[in-house]
Design goal:
This protein is of the alpha+beta class. Among the domains are: about 130 residues, Phosphorylase Kinase, domain 1; about 230 residues, Orthogonal Bundle (Transferase(Phosphotransferase), domain 1). The strands form seven sheets. The protein has a six-stranded mixed β-sheet, sandwiched between helices. It has a three-stranded antiparallel β-sheet with strand order 1-2-3.
């Protein structure tokens, strides 16, 4: 009965086109299924389209426009054409159990008149074995380049790599490339760690050794550092700047690929692990500092916009096999346009190296780097950390302690006691002069880096024109002639001036080489 009544109900005609009820129900179910299928199809298509757009964005569009718009103009300066004379550096090996065995580095320039025939090599070796190399500097940016003083052009470390892209910051590496190079970012390949990333040693498929800086995340300060570092150094070339070979932007991954510098950094040679190989000699230290000065001179005065590094310190000065400096870690760098005397920014850097006016006001320009270089120079002369709380209270701050020592006519006592061969009086006074001028509390009185380079290179003090103005600014001065009688400082005449309001912050040495 019930089944007959159900059949009767389904067989009844409806008002919809006179169709029977079971036909209308069937059409409704079919339409619902078709609607579901259409919705699924549209969702899948949108998903594929968004994925394609995302991939295209990461592969092509994540180069910030500002990095593409940076224009760098090379300024020709005769100073860049000059090269220091050859020096012979001795590094005393204290790691041997035998009698103190001497290791040496011979740094010389080839005298061949034919640049194409210049050959070079330099290494650390025992006793009288020697090898010559040519020392100089190289700077280039955009279309402007200067002839490398190395003579023969060096093969590009990117030769043999797939030509993926050369947008903006050098070669574009895939995540797969760098995973292979670093053995999937193995812990064994870690060579450094920082607040925003880890640096791995790697080897590209063409055999080139590289350092891969991998950001821990791509948010906030880490992302800013990644872009700042790439924009600051991606377009410039200089012998004393670590070379950026390329980058990787893939998904959330952000990586920068640099040339690998395998001889440690200045901090390790002065205070850390590299000391097991010997003590860095005075000449080697001055060579590293001169290279650093040339790199900063190039960043500040030879390109546009100028680059303010903002974190000059001994651990950021890498050293290659020839004891050439390689300034690294541009994560905090800022670009300063030609119309800008300074910029206001959040105070960042390393305690002990930060310029006082920047720390107090946040006003940043290249003078901040010059102050940091002055601290770096004092660190190299004395072998002391910029701030060392393990020392007596009056020796904690390196800059203040050194000013006190100079003011008390004890300049020769500041030299690193680990140096087996002390510098000449003239060399010491020149280094102290440069350092004290760089850390002048009045940023306007600090020299430009080109002037610092000339002072470090010169056999004679080049600032005779500054004597009169400095004498007129100094309310009282003491002839360093008296220092000869009390501490035996040799044949170099100097003056130490102190502002009466702050005896520890405005001393200056003036060297005369008449």
């Amino acid at each position: 009965m019930s089944s007959d009544s159900l059949n009767a109900q389904l067989s009844k005609k409806t008002s919809f086109l006179g169709l029977k009820l079971w036909v209308v129900i069937g059409l409704g179910v079919g339409a619902f299924i078709v609607l579901i299928l259409c919705i699924l199809s549209v969702w899948v298509m949108c998903r594929r389209k968004s994925r394609s757009t995302l991939d295209k964005k990461y592969s092509l569009c994540q180069i910030p426009n500002v990095s593409k718009d940076i224009k760098v103009d090379r300024v020709v300066d005769q100073n860049y054409l000059d090269h220091p004379e050859p020096v012979y550096l001795s590094v005393h090996d204290k790691s041997s159990d035998k009698n103190s065995e001497k290791m040496s580095v011979h740094l010389g320039r080839s005298k061949s008149s034919d640049v194409d025939n210049i050959s070079q090599c330099s290494s650390m070796y025992h006793h009288e074995r020697a090898c010559s190399s040519q020392s100089g500097e190289e700077g280039s940016s955009g279309n402007a380049r200067k002839q490398s003083s190395y003579g023969l052009p060096m093969a590009s470390p990117l030769v043999g790599l797939p030509e993926i892209s050369h947008l903006g910051w050098g070669h574009w590496f895939t995540l797969r490339d760098l995973e292979i190079a670093t053995n999937r970012f193995s812990a064994e390949n870690v060579i450094g760690e920082g607040g925003y990333g880890v640096v791995y040693r790697g080897k590209l498929v063409n055999g080139t050794e590289v350092a891969v800086k991998r950001l821990l995340n791509n948010l906030g300060q880490a992302e800013k550092e990644f872009r700042a570092e790439a924009e600051a150094i991606g377009h410039v070339r200089h012998k004393n700047l670590v070379r950026l070979l390329g980058y990787c932007i893939e998904g959330v991954h952000r990586m920068l690929v640099y040339e690998y510098v395998n001889n440690g950094n200045l901090e390790q040679w002065l205070h850390g692990a590299m000391r097991q190989y010997g003590t860095l000699t005075w000449e080697a230290r001055m060579k590293v500092l001169l290279g650093t000065a040339k790199a900063l001179s190039y960043l500040h005065e030879a390109i546009e916009p100028k680059v303010v590094h903002r974190d000059i310190k001994s651990s950021n000065i890498l050293i290659d096999d020839e004891f050439n400096a390689k300034v690294s870690d541009f994560g905090l760098a800022k670009l300063l346009g030609s119309g800008e005397s300074h910029i206001t920014t959040r105070v960042m850097g390393t305690f002990g190296y930060v310029a006082p006016e920047y720390a107090n006001s946040g006003l940043l320009n290249e003078k901040s780097d010059i102050y940091s270089f002055g601290v770096l120079l004092l660190e190299s002369v004395t072998g002391r950390d910029p701030v060392d709380y393990a020392r007596p209270a009056n020796e904690v701050n390196l800059v203040e302690w050194l000013k006190m020592m100079v003011g008390n006519r004890r300049a020769e006592e500041v030299v690193d006691p680990n140096l087996d061969v002390k510098p000449s009086t003239r060399a010491l006074k020149r280094a102290l002069l440069v350092a004290l001028r760089c850390v002048d509390p009045d940023s306007e009185k600090r020299p430009r880096m080109t002037q610092v380079v000339r002072m470090l290179e010169a056999d004679e003090f080049p600032y005779r024109e500054d004597r009169r103005s400095r004498r007129s600014r100094t309310s009282s001065s003491m002839d360093i002639e008296s220092m000869k009688d009390s501490s035996g400082l040799g044949d170099v005449d100097s003056n130490v001036g102190q502002q009466s309001s702050d005896k520890q912050t405005s001393e200056a040495i003036v060297i005369r080489t008449d």
